[in-house]
Amino acid sequence: MNGFGGHGWGMGWWWIIGLIIIIVIVWMVVKGMNQSNSPGQRPGKSALDILKERYAKGEIDKQEFEERKKDL
Length: 72
What we know:
Blueprint: H1 14-37, H2 47-57, H3 62-71
Helix pairs in contact: 2-3
Pfam families: SHOCT (PF09851)
Domain SHOCT: 47-72
Transmembrane segments: 12-30
């Protein structure tokens, strides 16, 4: 049995597999939270809505608004 309880090499590597699974789960949770909370990504707003907001705020003039609206 060589002091390994009859399992040989394999039993010693299970903690690494468990650690990898935990890291993947944490990474997925963090990635999901970042996507749902990131500023600038507003669900439900179309490109035209954003363009209208920029025009209303004065960030773009009427000519640029009309040109970009045609492109959309």
